[in-house]
Design goal:
heterodimer; A: 463 residues; mainly alpha; MetI-like fold; 76% helix; flat; B: 287 residues; alpha/beta; 6-stranded mixed beta sheet; 4-stranded antiparallel beta sheet; 10 strands
Chain lengths: 463, 287
Amino acid sequence: MHTWTLMLVLLGAAALAYHVGRKRAIATAGGSERINTLHSLPAYYGFYAAMWAAIPAVLLLGLWLGVQDQVITSLVKASLPPQSVAELTPGALGLLMNDVKNVASGNIASGAVTPAIQTAADHYARLQNLARWTQWLLVLALSVAGMAFAWSQTRPTMRARNRVESVVLGVLILFSSIAVLTTLGIVLSVVFESWQFFQKIAPSEFFLGTLWSPQTAMRADQVAADGAFGAVPLFTGTLLVSFIAMAVAVPIGLMAAIYLSEYAPRKVRSVAKPLLEILAGIPTVVYGFFAALTLAPVIRDLGEQLGFAVASESALAAGLVMGIMIIPFVSSLSDDVINAVPQAMRDGSYALGATQSETIRRVVIPAALPGIVGGVLLAVSRAIGETMIVVMAAGLTANLTANPLASVTTVTVQIVTLLTGDQEFDSAKTLAAFALGLTLFLVTLTLNIIALHIVRKYREQYE
Amino acid sequence: MNALASEIVRDTSAVSAADLAKGGHFSGTIGDITTPDPRMVCREVNVWYGDKHAIKDVSLDIGNHQVVAMIGPSGCGKSTFLRCLNRMNDTIDGCRVRGSITLDGQEIYDKGLDPVPLRAQVGMVFQKPNPFPKSIYENVAYGARIHGLTNSKAELDALVETSLRKAGLWNEVKDRLDQPGTGLSGGQQQRLCIARTIAVSPEVILMDEPCSALDPIATAIIEELIDELREQYSIAIVTHSMQQAARVSQRTAYFHLGDLVEVGETTQVFTNPRHKLTEDYITGRFG
């Protein structure tokens, strides 16, 4: 709590520094009518002072908060009577320290409060109090020092704007690197876990094996399967479901895009396009139970009437619904690239006596094709990575089949099943999820790179 | 600035038109709108874009084996008039055309007439070269393919070659017919578009400022080409360059704010303009 108060005080200090810095700049210039002798606008001198008042102080505060607890804890540990600590395991020592902290903050300890613990707790509380005051004192002193430094630096020739802007630039770089570093971190963690997995299971078994049964024994005496990690049925299941989805989404999305961009009157377009894009806003979990509860039974009943054996969790149901989910993705991207084909192309074709459909078939679509292919590839990577629909509508058993009426499972479904519930983090079963995730990531990454490359190449085509 | 300029132009028009036509409204074109051997005959053509009256009672003949140049300040309606001649205005929303335009005696705005075959008879070359993003060969073969003009690959090859030869492009591209047409230079692209138009053997070729995006050398080549094409086709060309109109055309029509002000032999219009507005324009007083 008191940290927030300190932050507020620092904010106030920054505001004060801004005001002072601005005033100081005007004063050094020789009054408000001689502002034009300043290198930068007075406000920049204000920001400069505010930065000096706030940034070093905040950095110190952050550093302090990072180490304070560790330092105090180790000090308290050192003050504990050596004979009472000597025989404790690190875990027990941690519990003891927890008790000390709980007593210090007035909470209930886990056991009886011995005099030793009470003394330690008093010591802990005293140290904390001391740290708090030192922290306030140091941080505020640094803030004032920063302000004073900025004050001493302020003169008309100082390039305040450049300095402020370089700090702003640094902040922007910092924030953008957060996104990049996070991605990198995720990738690396997946890679390391997958590495561990491939230490236990040979890559050849994983990528070529056709039996998937990831149940491993958790205890030595447990009667259970050894676990089989042949991921081929998962890959084929994913491909089957994605293929069905694309078979639905590509024709419908493309036709819709052609109608909307070439034939539809403006009024229809202005209504139909947003409506189509609403499909993209429906949460995938809604699609999922639509597939599982509405479409799958319909398909099963229909199949039974026609004399087919249809699993109640068929690849067809999941694929169809996933396809519908992807339609706006395909149609919106295709619509954009079709619209990007210059009107001059169409005019040139009309002027040669081509009809509208000939123009669309022979000029507009070929010209837009690279962009459309790019859009479709992005949609494929979306389909492969889609999870919620297949978790609900596709099955859990890994069947190696190309029959869309059978139940199949996908990579994403298996990742979900492997990681939900209790598990140990060093078993092959859990680590398999990372290997699957890595494979999935590599496939979608490749597709995205190809797609972006094609789209970019397409953009340069009319230049 | 622009608004002011157009304001001034409007004033000139009102005053001079009133002076010369001895009436409030501009009432009729000076010069002979007819030719002895007309290919296309336009009578009292009016065009509206929504509420804007873009072309007002324009009557003009496009002569056989002749180049008609249409000149005039920006926004005077010359391009709009040109686009009426092959019904390209049909593709623009809110555009209405009234009046009579015939091609070899056939009314082209007839309700029963399909504009699609008409456009094969009246070809068009645009301001900015617009080759399709296909190979040079496919660009020229496009029209023949959609109209089924040839029966064999050899015939198509021959048609592509003749068309490119007529457009004066054959020697430059014969070794790279499979390269994309968009990779040619601006002037070559424009000649490719002309070859593409010729390939469907039109009777009339409309050219909408065909050289405005080209450098002087490419322009000179195209102008020479236009002069050669005149022997086989009737040509109507819109241009902003009066030198170009003087060089390539036999007849010149001067448009002003949707009115056809003056028509005549090119030499006469440029040496001895009869209307004050025409004189002002060709002497560079505005435009």
